[in-house]
Write a structure and sequence with these properties.
5 helices, mainly alpha
Length: about 110
């Protein structure tokens, strides 16, 4: 059947990433709906005007920074796992021999 793409640990990581992403998307969608409603009621700005808006260079940079922060939050979700030791990371990446060598060399211990 071939190599497995996801191990059980990877599935947990994927689930953490998915939940982080869903949380971020819902928060943004909720805020966007409120903003669109208020803009329409108070200023008469339509959803079509928002859809057609083209940001200038300065605002584009701010949008890129916000995008990068979102991507970072989603991608780093697996790092919130309980065990974030060097040994654990190496084992999960398939480098069990490297983890053992680090231990025997003393490089995997804290303070060395």
């Amino acid at each position: 059947m071939g190599d497995r793409y996801l191990s059980p640990d990877n599935v947990d990581d994927l689930a953490r990433m998915l939940m982080a992403l869903l949380s971020e998307v819902w928060i943004m969608r909720d805020r966007m709906a409120i903003q669109e409603k208020l803009l329409g009621e108070k200023l008469g700005v339509s959803a079509a005007e928002i859809d057609d808006y083209v940001p200038d260079a300065e605002f584009s940079e701010k949008l890129e920074a916000l995008r990068d922060r979102l991507v970072s939050a989603v991608i780093s979700a697996p790092l919130s796992a309980d065990d974030r030791s060097v040994d654990s990371i190496l084992r999960r990446a398939g480098f069990t021999d490297a983890a053992e060598r680090l231990k025997s060399d003393g490089a995997g211990e804290t303070g060395k």
